[in-house]
Design brief:
Layout (H helix, E strand, L loop, with lengths): L2 H24 L5 H16 L10 H23 L4 H7 L3 H13 L5 H17 L9 H25 L4 H23 L3 H7 L2 H28 L2 H4 L6 H12 L6 H19 L6
Helix pairs in contact: 1-10, 1-12, 2-3, 2-8, 2-10, 3-7, 3-8, 4-12, 4-13, 5-7, 6-13, 7-10, 8-10
């Protein structure tokens, strides 16, 4: 990537890592589906008016928004609601090996031996991480988080062609518009008492909602689709390696979490596996 693209790409893990962690205390007042629904809906209604209707792309936008946003964030943040943020931010690194696997089946990109070994090492790191004492009895939360990581990878692969046809911020706006209301509806159906959640929320939780919808979503995903449009997927993915760093720092200093040795050992193994995938020699088709 160019120097400018690299600087823009750095905004992604900074905004996402910080936002991922500070979402956890907001769950005391907003269930995961409702919090994510508000996040996407707010972002959509401040952005969508600035861009023309993407004629001929509605079907693709609906598919990508459902898989990469509605379903993915519903799963990931439901998992975050169960497990510690420091564990969750490492588990989502499984997005990279999942992405390699999905690209093999959908884009016929054949990974080399080093990439395959990297996938195995990454999932071994996930296996170590699931043995952490703070995850004992929380297998369902781990499963939800990993399922969300898989859906994010699938959504990213499907979004690549759209990013080449649309303005990055227009793509963010329309994906948010198709994602937010379904998440709020899901919260109404499964959580109920939506008005009570609004009335009982304190100022800090509303500030978190404001950060997610007004800043994190437009800037992080606008930047993501911008660099995705201009660069190959395998050159963009390495920026996600910084997400656990920003997420862990936020979890430690903002939430007061104290990750144990399993977190650091499992996280290190995941980093090694992801590094083998991202920095291994790409096999030509």
């Amino acid at each position: 990537m160019s120097f400018r693209d690299s600087l823009v790409a750095l905004l992604v893990p900074i905004f996402l890592g910080f936002g991922f962690v500070i979402s956890k205390p907001a769950f005391e007042y907003f269930p995961p589906f409702l919090l994510m629904g508000l996040r996407f809906t707010i972002a959509a209604f401040i952005m969508v008016w600035w861009f023309p209707i993407p004629k001929g792309l509605f079907k693709d936008l609906i598919i990508v928004s459902f898989i990469g946003s509605t379903l993915q964030y519903g799963l990931t943040y439901s998992g975050l609601n169960i497990i510690d943020a420091s564990s969750a931010v490492l588990l989502v690194q499984a997005e990279v090996p999942f992405g390699v696997i999905i690209a093999y089946f959908l884009l016929k990109e054949k990974p080399g031996i080093k990439n395959i070994l990297g996938i195995c090492v990454s999932f071994f790191g996930v296996f170590i991480l699931t043995g952490a004492p703070n995850l004992e009895g929380k297998f369902f939360g781990v499963l939800l988080t990993l399922s969300g990581a898989c859906m994010w990878s699938l959504g990213a692969v499907l979004a690549k062609p759209l990013s080449e046809k649309m303005n990055p911020f227009a793509l963010t706006a329309w994906l948010c518009l198709f994602s937010g209301p379904p998440l709020i509806l899901a919260s109404v159906i499964f959580d109920g008492n939506t008005i009570n959640y609004f009335l009982s929320a304190n100022l800090n939780s509303w500030l978190i909602v404001g950060y997610l919808g007004l800043f994190m979503q437009p800037l992080a995903y606008g930047s993501w689709y911008y660099v995705l449009k201009r660069n190959p997927v395998h050159k963009v993915l390495p920026v996600l390696m910084l997400l656990p760093l920003t997420g862990l720092l936020a979890a430690i200093f903002l939430l007061g979490e104290k990750p144990g040795e399993y977190i650091f050992i499992g996280g290190t193994v995941i980093f090694i596996g992801v590094g083998m995938i991202l920095f291994g020699k790409q096999k030509k088709n």
